[in-house]
Design a protein that fits this description.
Blueprint lengths: L6 H27 L1 H15 L9 H24 L5 H9 L4 H34 L7 H17 L3 H6 L6 H17 L4 H28 L2 H6 L2 H4 L1 H26 L3
Helix pairs in contact: 1-3, 1-5, 2-3, 2-5, 3-5, 3-8, 5-8, 8-9, 8-12
Length: 266
């Protein structure tokens, strides 16, 4: 069992892996976290130049920047933290680290899918909260505005649109977030150069192929009209089916990442 997984050994390796990740990604990570503050400063300067007085970035702009920042994090974090594994020197050192492949894989998953996103969300929302507390021209903080989503959810549910009500709940997209990170992590381990661009191109190609395969099915549903579709089992259980499919994709990606790490040679 110790050869497969040892908690004490794993704990030490996880801390080392976190330090290694921040050494490679720290400056970029800090820049992404501070992007909201940077946009706030630019908004104030721009407003002063135009003669509109002191005015910080509004709620809508701050949500847009937060979303873009998180997408950038999703795309760049895996390749910066683990893309070096495909290089001869760093990869050989990683392969010779005296921990099992399962411990390496779990550490990789925890750092890219849990730790880094959690630190980003806490730090980014914390900075945004402090900005809005200091400058009322920004409006309410991002965290506080989440209550509006709950009001919207309740309102949609009262209208009988249960699916629409669930669609505004951010928690329903955690599995999608993890899937996205795992896709770019797999790309970072598969491609030698141009890891991000090749991963994006692969996703586009996969989307085109999927579109060709599933378009006839979608057209078949369209023939029955929207009313019959909304009453169908598929629509009524859309989020359950989506969650199951996302977890399935997650499992497939983890398996592919596992076999890729097992086959890396220099």
């Amino acid at each position: 069992m110790n050869d497969i997984f040892n908690f004490k050994r794993f704990g030490k390796y996880l801390l080392t892996d976190i330090k290694s990740c921040f050494a490679a990604y720290g400056i970029s990570f800090l820049t992404i976290i501070l992007s909201g503050l940077i946009i706030y400063a630019v908004s104030v300067i721009y407003s002063l130049i135009l003669g509109n007085g002191w005015h910080g970035s509004g709620l809508v702009l701050r949500w847009i920047i937060a979303t873009i920042s998180f997408l950038v994090l999703t795309i760049t974090c895996p390749s910066r933290c683990y893309g070096r594994i495909t290089e001869k020197r760093a990869g050989s050192s990683w392969l010779m680290t005296p921990v099992s492949i399962y411990e390496k894989l779990l550490s990789m998953f925890l750092i890219t899918c849990i730790f880094i996103p959690a630190v980003f969300l806490l730090a980014y929302s914390g900075i945004d909260f402090l900005i809005c507390m200091a400058d009322t021209t920004c409006g309410e903080p991002l965290v506080s505005s989440l209550r509006d989503l709950e009001f919207l959810k309740d309102g949609l549910d009262e209208l009988g649109a249960g699916i629409a009500g669930k669609a505004v709940n951010p928690l329903h997209y955690i599995d999608d977030m993890i899937d996205g990170i795992l896709v770019f992590l797999l790309g970072a381990l598969v491609f030698g150069k141009g890891k991000i661009s090749k991963t994006i191109l692969s996703m586009i190609a996969f989307s085109i192929i999927s579109g060709i395969v599933f378009t006839p099915i979608a057209l078949n549903f369209a023939e029955y009209g929207p009313a019959m579709f909304t009453d169908s089992f598929l629509f009524r259980n859309l989020f359950i089916i989506d969650t199951i499919s996302d977890i399935t994709v997650m499992a497939v990606l983890i398996v592919l990442i596992f076999f890729r790490t097992k086959t890396i040679k220099h």
